[in-house]
Amino acid sequence: MTPAPYSPSDPGSTAFTSRRDVRLGKWLLAVPAHLAMVGTVLAFVVTLAPPDLVAGSMPAASAVGGAPSAPASTATATATATATATATADDAPSSAALDALASLEVAARRGSMSGYDRQARFGDWTDADGDCVDTRNEILARDLDDVASDDGCRVTSGRLTDPYTGASIPFTRGVATSSDVQIDHVVAAGNAWASGAEALSPAERVEFYNDPLNLLAVDGSLNGAKSDASADEWLPPERSFHCEYVATQIAVKAKYELRVTASEKAVMAEVLSACPDQELPTDHRNEDPR
């Protein structure tokens, strides 16, 4: 026998409809509680989210890789800071003279002069190339104008534009006049001894004494006044020559691995601050002056 089709008026469907309605009613009664729970969770999430995310200002994804790009203000600040750092590095004083000064060993104070004897420790003028012109006369020939010589070996006359004063000083060889122009060791032999030259070999000390890099024809009276002074104790009266003078001392001390004192280094750095592009003297001083 074929069952009769389901009909809402069928008494057999009444119980089913009643049970469904009961379940639906219970579910509807539970909805407010579920919604309240969801609201609580959402509120908690909002309190943890970054302000930019909550405000809808999440950084846009970059065109490559989809990673968030930095906000415009952050990128601008970073670029500005980088440019400033680069400009600062470019503007910082830097020169061969300053670099060489930074490389010198620094002593708290000047070393001992014990054992110093200029003649015994450093020797005298030499004629290294055997051309009959000793170092003194080579420097006179290099630094004087209108140089004359009666034998091709000794300078007999000339005129010096003194680097220490800017004055023009005539030179005439003679017992009473030769001392008007003297050869100064820019790093004095006594200062060199107290700065580490005692550790040099005898041959190296003779080389130091005759090194054209360290020699200048100058006003004789100022050479005597300077004596063995270092840069923190004496500088030439001609201020425009201070940078070259200090740079020469640095070059010589670097070449022979001599020390500077802390105060000497401070004065050298102060002088070079006025000429941050000052280079070290080059080997042109060692060229044949004739």
UniProtKB/TrEMBL annotation:
<keyword id="KW-0472">Membrane</keyword>
<keyword id="KW-0812">Transmembrane</keyword>
<feature type="domain" description="GmrSD restriction endonucleases C-terminal">
    <location>
        <begin position="136"/>
        <end position="271"/>
    </location>
</feature>
<feature type="transmembrane region" description="Helical">
    <location>
        <begin position="27"/>
        <end position="49"/>
    </location>
</feature>
<keyword id="KW-1133">Transmembrane helix</keyword>
<dbReference type="InterPro" id="IPR011089">
    <property type="entry name" value="GmrSD_C"/>
</dbReference>
<dbReference type="Pfam" id="PF07510">
    <property type="entry name" value="GmrSD_C"/>
</dbReference>
<protein>
    <submittedName>
        <fullName>DUF1524 domain-containing protein</fullName>
    </submittedName>
</protein>
